[in-house]
Every structure is written in C-alpha cells, then in structure tokens.
Design brief:
2 copies of one chain form a homodimer. By secondary structure, chain A is of the alpha+beta class. Chain A is built from 3 helices and 6 strands, in the order ααββαββββ. Chain A has a single domain, classed as Nuclear Transport Factor 2, Chain: A (Roll), CATH 3.10.450.50. The longest helix of chain A has 14 residues. Chains A and B meet through β1, β3, β4, β5 and β6 of A and β1, β3, β4, β5 and β6 of B.
C-alpha cells in the first residue's frame, strides 16, 4: 500500500529541520497552525513557529536530526490524525529520544495537506 | 478560564453514549468522520459509526458509561486536537478502564465544531 501523503510530507519536513531550512519547513504548516514547543508552551502562527524551531536548533547546537518510526494515519472529513514515533537524534548521543507524537493535518483546497497542530508530545501532555 | 467548547461537546456526547441516544450522539460527528473501533478496525461515516456504537453498547450489556479525566485542547487553523483521559465504567467493575484518547475536531461554518477523527486509543495504536 502506498504511504499516505502526509507521511511523505512529514519526512520532507524532517529533512528541512535537519538542514535548518526553515523557509521550506514553514511550507508544511497552515498559516495559523499551532506547535507545542514543550508542555505548557505553544507557538501559534508561522512567525512564532519559525522562531521556535530556530531556538530549538540553537538549543541543540545545530546537531538535531529527526526521523520517523512506526506511524498510523487516520483520515476523516478532510482532516488526518497522525500518531507516530518521532526519533530525535541529538549530537553524539548513542540512542535517539523517542516520542509518540500526534499531528493533525487538514486538506486545504489550494495548498493540499497542511499541518494544523504539531504536538510531538502526544498524550504525554497528560503526565 | 472557561472550558473549551469541544470539551463541553465531548461531555454531551458521553452522556448520549451512556443514555444509548445514538441520534443525539451522531450530531457531534462530521458526516465522513472516522472512529477507531479497535486497533486495526475503523468505522467511516455516520452509518458505520452508529452501527459500531450500537455493537459496543450490546457488547457491554448496555452498562457502559463514559466520563472525562484530565484533558488538553490544542486549537490551530480551524481544527482542535484533544488529548484526554477517557474513563470507561463497565458494569460492576470496581475501577474504570482509563484510555489516553486523541480526538480531532474541525470548525464547520454552519454546524460549529464537529468530531472528524475519534481515536480513543491515542498513541497506544503504536503498541
């Protein structure tokens, strides 16, 4: 079965993060998307999301790469919920940090699938 | 801070489940919403979702009630991701089954917030 389109987009976005290509990264987001930067802190809208990613990149000394593990896409009514293992490879750490992320995409009539909610913490927000 | 509108809707939907009022329950869903019935099995569209809830109700001998625990709503770009403890109280069981659920809502211009993806298994789908 071919991969769902949003998984291909996430893979491209992860490459943009690793390359620190934030112009390209922003193309994957709806204009008023929301990013959970960390529990209790959100970035809303592309300017804030871009600033957050630049800060995250600096925080990790520009050694962050992101890859995907297992994933499920549940598509309904013009939206798609992605539940996914997101692996954060940081510097020389021997093992990646594994998060169980949740992403929401919505189908935009002109731009196609766009990320509307980026919550890499998944249900761990409830801890 | 007042509760997010979608949390009020979920509470009303939970009441409808407990009352086995499936007509009311269906009003909370987009026409082509998706319900994760169990890992690997989805119901798509209101007729299938209704049939699934009727079967779930029969399965539990009509003793199922659903309540909410902790919850977070992350709203972006006309969608809302809900991460929530969903408590399933079944028959005379002393303790509820606690799931860490994920729900997606989208703002419909005429009908308001509607559930588009109902995944009470959250990131446990990755197990």
């Amino acid at each position: 079965m071919p991969q769902h389109a949003v998984l291909t987009l996430i893979k491209q976005a992860d490459k943009a993060i690793s390359a620190e290509d934030f112009d390209t990264l922003m193309e994957f987001y709806a204009d008023d998307a929301v990013l959970v930067v960390q529990p209790g802190q959100i970035a809303k809208g592309k300017p804030q999301i871009r600033t957050a990613f630049e800060a995250i990149s600096r925080h990790f000394g520009k050694t962050l790469t992101v890859t995907q593990g297992h994933a499920h896409v549940i598509e309904g009514a013009g939206t798609a919920l992605v539940v996914m293992e997101t692996l954060l490879h940081i510097g020389q750490a021997p093992e990646p940090v594994v998060r169980r992320a949740t992403y929401v995409f919505a189908m935009d009539p002109t731009r196609g699938w766009l990320c509307t909610v980026d919550n890499s913490y998944g249900t761990d927000l409830l801890d």
